Amino acid sequence: MVSPPEKAIETKAPRPLRADASRNRDKLAEIAGHVFAERGGNASLEEIARQAGVGIGTLYRHFPTREHLVEVVYRREVEGLCAAADELAIHNAPDAALGEWMQRFVDYIAAKRGMANSLRILFDGNSQVFANTSGMVAGALRKLVDAAVADGSIRSDINSADLLQALSGIYSAPDTPEWREQSRRLVSLLMDGLRWGSEKARL
């Protein structure tokens, strides 16, 4: 006797967001990145919603907790920094692209510092965001360094991993009102050091 076919299990895919809802979600994530960078740990979700032009209820519909929002913002910041490396490389000389990217790294660190507490919660909760973004920033920097070395516009003995370590050191700098401007000056000094002793500097 042939058994009747099993009834197919119906699975419903998540409904796509309406265009306006998708815009609201993107706007909230964009604004949150700026607010976290400017206000640090004092950034409020109410302020983020206000600047995005939506109510706090709309924010919570998209991001039920602060950590949900931080996870999206952190991924967006990493992807944006990496995309900037490709864009800068197209429109600038290799050393100029590297220098500008390093300045943008300061903004990335500012946002990351502002999300520090929530990022620790995500890390302790084994969030996949870190596994999914691991190595992306290092890879973007390595491409820029390799191009500038090949061009002869920075010294050839630079290791991109060492440079990333030096850049990441600004994360632990004291949180003062002058922190970002001081970090930009330090990055400029670091870039000057990369150019010193390069092939083009010796010409």
Summarize the structure in words:
The chain is mainly α and 203 residues long. The protein has a domain at 77-115 and 130-202: Orthogonal Bundle (Tetracycline Repressor, domain 2), CATH 1.10.357. The protein has helices spanning 19-39, 45-52, 56-62, 66-91, 94-114, 116-124, 128-133, 136-151, 160-168, 179-195, 199-202. It is elongated, with a radius of gyration of 22 Å. Residues 1-14 have low confidence and may be disordered.
Outline the secondary-structure elements.
Elements: H1 19-39, H2 45-52, H3 56-62, H4 66-91, H5 94-114, H6 116-124, H7 128-133, H8 136-151, H9 160-168, H10 179-195, H11 199-202
Helix pairs in contact: 1-2, 1-4, 1-5, 4-5, 4-6, 4-8, 5-8, 5-10
Protein name: TetR/AcrR family transcriptional regulator
Region (Disordered): 1-22
GO molecular function, one term: transcription cis-regulatory region binding
What's a quick, concise take on this entry?
The chain has 203 residues and is mostly helical. The protein is built from eleven helices and no strands. It has a domain at 77-115 and 130-202: Tetracycline Repressor, domain 2, CATH 1.10.357.
